[in-house]
Specification:
This protein has 392 residues and is an alpha/beta fold. 41% of the residues lie in helices and 15% in strands. It has helices at residues 6-12, 38-46, 61-74, 85-96, 111-123, 136-142, 165-174, 187-190, 224-238, 244-275, 295-301, 316-326, 356-362, 378-391; strands spanning 78-82, 102-106, 127-131, 147-153, 178-182, 200-204, 218-222, 281-285, 308-313, 331-332, 342-344, 368-372. The strands form two sheets. It has a seven-stranded mixed sheet with strand order 1-7-6-5-4-2-3, with helices on both faces. A five-stranded mixed sheet has the order 8-9-12-11-10. Helix 1 packs antiparallel against helix 10 (244-275), helix 3 (61-74) runs parallel beside helix 10 and helix 12 crosses helix 14. The protein is globular. The termini are far apart. The protein binds pyridoxal-5'-phosphate (PLP). Residues 84-86, 89, 110, 112-113, 153, 157, 182, 184, 204, 206-207, 216, 218 line the site of pyridoxal-5'-phosphate. Pyridoxal-5'-phosphate (PLP) binds at residues 84-86, 89, 110, 112-113, 153, 157, 182, 184, 204, 206-207, 216, 218.
């Protein structure tokens, strides 16, 4: 397996076949496991091997297959799967930190990540310094000798600012800090977070890995020591386990993740190129367009610009709502990475909780829309968006 390319790993890595030799991965829909004898139960509780299970909150064969396949795909030593992306973010942060620790985080974060770093961690005595993720001088002055970890999204939601992961990792490692990355927007297909210095990589599997809007899931990837000694004890006792059924759905998702993401990114680039400069658009951001402020970083760090475009329509909230209501193909919703194109108005939905000043600081204007590009025909999407822009 070591010489397999990521596409092959995404289809085959980690497979465990039962005595029936099934082709499609077996779904072990079981919460518990039976021991041969009382002595075997005792021995399993003293020490369990990699394929010896006790209770599904600790591990399950279908979940283990997903963890191993993801670790192989990402090039990580080990992985722990969780019930959702937020269970992964929470588990990775809370298992690593204690009162008195210092964290430096990029300010532009997914709303729930921001809630953990801004509200929960300080309540428990963790000091968090927020920086503009694209400003390397700000990272450098914020990271202290006693900084325990840095946290960032490689591509920020929803404005698509790109953080230079290799540069931030070098600054963090110089001070002995752990680099923890939420890599959802870069996807496990286009990002290379471990190559670029991340110690811990987190995905919401709900997004591109399922990619078909069916289930929640998450995963934490990193060094074996970190996963087994730091993350696992915390998660197995606090209950963030991934359901075997959802792990099975994610395994099916991984079989097509390269095909889907590659097509979606190709369509996204074509749409971004065709729509840039449209007279009804105040702004358009896509990481692989030369007009993107971090274009150089984005092309070095990601194989494509990803599957999301940020659009700012003219006419503020009213213009954005007219545009949304005139669309016939992209649905109004708040997932991303789905086979169906999805439009989100962050100011009134995902980022509604923030004050106007906070939204301004993050560049979330009233006209901003997050466009997650799906698998529909590019010509149909372009015609639909152009006609909806006329309605503004
Ligand atoms: C969706 C998302 C999450 C949370 O994932 P869930 O599976 O919804 O819990 C975290 N970070 C980013 C960047 C996301 O897009």
């Amino acid at each position: 397996m070591t010489d397999w390319s990521p596409r092959t790993r995404a289809v085959h890595a980690g497979t465990r076949r039962s005595q029936y030799g099934e082709v499609s991965e077996a779904l072990f829909m079981t919460q518990g496991f039976v021991y041969e004898s009382a002595e075997a139960a005792e021995a399993r509780f003293i020490e369990s091997g990699p394929d010896e299970f006790i209770y599904a909150r600790y591990g399950n064969p279908t979940v283990a297959t997903f963890e191993e396949r993801m670790a192989a795909l990402e090039g990580a030593e080990d992985a722990f799967a969780t019930a959702s992306g937020m269970a992964a973010v929470n588990g990775a942060l809370c298992s690593s930190l204690k009162a008195g620790d210092h964290v430096v985080s990029a300010r532009a974060l997914f709303g729930s990540c921001l809630y953990i770093l801004e509200d929960i961690l300080p309540r428990w005595g963790v000091e968090v310094t927020f920086v503009d993720g694209t400003d390397l001088a700000a990272w450098e002055s914020a990271i202290r000798d006693d900084t325990k970890l840095v946290f960032l999204e490689t591509v920020a939601n929803p404005t698509l600012e790109v953080v230079d992961l290799a540069a931030v990792s070098a600054l963090a490692h110089a001070k002995g800090a752990l680099v923890m990355v939420d890599n959802v927007f870069a996807t496990p297909v286009f990002g290379h977070a471990i190559r670029d210095g991340a110690d811990v990589v987190i995905y919401s599997a709900t997004k591109h890995i399922d990619g078909q809007g069916r289930a929640l899931g998450g995963i934490i990837l990193g060094k074996q020591q970190f996963i087994r000694k730091t993350v696992e004890p915390y998660l197995k006792h606090t209950g963030g386990a991934l359901s075997p059924f959802n792990a099975w759905l994610m395994l099916k998702g991984l079989e097509t993740v390269h095909l889907r993401c590659t097509q979606q990114a190709q369509t996204a680039l074509a749409l971004a190129t065709a729509l840039e400069g449209h007279e009804q658009l105040a702004k358009l951001a896509y990481p692989h367009l030369p007009s993107h402020p971090q274009y150089e970083v984005a092309t070095r760090q990601m194989d494509t610009g990803g599957t999301v475009i940020a659009l700012e329509v003219k006419g503020g909230k009213e213009g954005a709502f007219r545009f949304l209501n005139a669309l016939t193909i992209p649905v109004i919703s708040n997932n991303l990475g789905d086979a169906k194109s999805i439009m989100t108005h962050p100011a009134t939905t995902t980022h509604q909780r923030l004050s106007e000043a906070q939204r301004d600081a993050l560049g979330i204007s009233d006209g901003l829309l997050r466009f997650s590009v799906g698998l529909e025909d590019e010509r149909d999407l372009l015609a639909d968006i152009r006609s909806a822009l006329e309605v503004i």
